[in-house]
Automatic annotation (TrEMBL):
It comes from Methylobacterium brachiatum. Residues 5-149 form the PTS EIIA type-2 domain. This is PTS IIA-like nitrogen regulatory protein PtsN. CDD domains: PTS_IIA_fru. Pfam families: PTS_EIIA_2.
């Protein structure tokens, strides 16, 4: 089973185009509802925006993990996006963000939501993982990296 079982191959965006944080959140919401037809884009976007108002989900090293809980969602859902150019995300380390992992959870997810967030952070912080993600040539390669328990060794 993949390490991030809530990520599927169709939920990997190789090159997201956006110029600002709000636009990134809008595009992530749009991408998510394409894969979750039971949801509407506006509530997803509003949930992400409300979470960002509490503090940036930019965790450092060019990575953000926007997340939220939504009524009408029946499972954890992940969507990975690599940006075509870095965006100011008000990250903790002040660096612009070029990698985002969107995590959506059912409204009553409780600890499962927190466990999934920790799991995503662990995968993205594996030694060498961000270098491999930034070098990956296509969505399939990105999916393979994200669903393995350890990053591949450099050749």
């Amino acid at each position: 089973m993949p390490i991030l079982e809530f990520l599927d191959p169709e939920s990997v965006v190789q090159s997201l185009r956006a110029r600002a944080k709000k636009q990134v959140l809008q595009e992530l919401a749009a991408q998510a509802v394409r894969r979750l037809p039971a949801l509407d884009e506006r509530p997803v976007f509003d949930t992400l925006l409300q979470r960002e108002r509490l503090g940036s989900t930019g965790i450092g090293e060019g990575v953000a993990i926007p997340h939220g809980k939504l009524p009408g969602l029946d499972r954890l859902f992940g969507l990975f996006a690599r940006f075509d150019r870095p965006i100011d995300f008000e990250a903790l380390d002040g660096q612009p963000v070029d990698i985002a992992f969107l995590l959506l959870a059912p409204e009553g997810a409780g600890a499962d939501h927190l466990k999934a967030l920790a799991q995503v952070a662990r995968v993205l912080r594996e030694p060498g993982m961000l270098t491999h993600i930034r070098a990956a040539r296509d969505a399939g390669a990105l999916y393979a990296l994200l669903t393995r328990s350890t990053a591949p060794q450099a050749a």
